[in-house]
Amino acid sequence: MNTNTNNKFQNAKVLVVGATGGIGSAFVEKIKQLDKDNIIIEVVRKKKYNHQIEVDMLDEESMTQCALEIHKQHGTIDMILNTVGLLHSDGAMPERAYKEINQDFLQKTFEANTFIPFLVSKHFIPLLSKNKTSLIAFMSARIGSISDNNLGGWYSYRASKSALNMLIKTLSIELSYKNKNAICIGLHPGTVKTNLSDPFSEKIKAYKVFSKEESIDYLVNQINRVDQTFSGKLIDWKGDVIPY
Ligand SMILES: NC(=O)c1ccc[n+]([C@@H]2O[C@H](COP(=O)([O-])OP(=O)(O)OC[C@H]3O[C@@H](n4cnc5c(N)ncnc54)[C@H](OP(=O)(O)O)[C@@H]3O)[C@@H](O)[C@H]2O)c1
Question: Ligand 1 — pocket residues by CB below 6 A?
Fold first, then answer.
């Protein structure tokens, strides 16, 4: 990766976890456009294209094998973008009231928004280069901010993203002495038109809704802007730090 923090997408090896998702696939397309020499490694739960690596992200053995395969093929990498996440599943929608809390939905939400980022960290952070600037970014959400919660509802999504934010902060502390060149951040992409936001398209009309491409342009700018002083923080698409 170019050591100039203003251009992290030049000749870079980037691992995109969840590359079949709306934001994940848009990242892949953008990184290709930014430099044809970028190497993009796409980790997915179900392959859409042959070059993608299919992994059970909740299975430690599957993650171990995946990390070994990536290391064998690419050596160290420069960036990890975790774009996995879940807001609704098989018709189950986020809770509007505590009486709607359902253990199965809670489990699935925490698996995607929290457990997978934990396992991505454990298995893929060791692949990050130690000799130059590297970065791990997790798609979090403003809604995971405890201090910003004025509306209530969406219990599992909110709590699973708050737990993700704690992971990001804790990782940043460990990385500050184990890999001083690594930056660890959470990103809030804005409200983006994807499968995740689709059931709420009527409700979110009142808000600014980005296309995937618009959101990725903003996120690429933020990734290029940040240095180690931003590690452990949650940053939104326009560059504001969101208090936890
Ligand atoms: N869209 C928004 O407005 C918005 C706002 C704030 C934050 N975010 C965050 O941005 C991230 C990406 O969201 P998106 O809008 O791109 O949603 P999306 O299109 O639904 O993509 C979600 C991705 O997560 C993967 N995934 C979900 N559960 C998984 C599991 N158990 N195991 C492995 N992969 C799993 C999906 O895999 P498949 O492709 O196989 O289904 C897909 O790649 C999420 O973390 C979300 O919380 C989005």
Answer: 18, 20-24, 45-46, 57, 83-86, 111-112, 116, 139, 141, 188-189, 191-192, 194-197
Domain containing 169 — which CATH number?
Answer: 3.40.50.720
Residue at 244 is within a domain? no
Residue 33 lies in a domain: yes
Count the domains in the chain. Answer: 1
| Per-residue pLDDT reduced to its tens digit, 208-232 | 899 999 999 999 999 999 999 999 9
Give domain status of residue 243, yes or no: no
Burial group, residue 128, by CB count within 10 angstroms (0-12, 13-18, 19+): buried
Mean pLDDT in residue range 44-68? 98
Ligand 1 mutation pick, 43, 86, 214, max ligand atoms within 8 A of CB: 86
Domain holding 44, by residue range, is: 13-236
Instruction: Yes or no: say if 115 and 63 are a contact pair by the CB < 8 Å rule.
Output: no
* This prediction's pTM: 0.97
Is the distance from CB of 121 to CB of 170 less than 8 angstroms? no
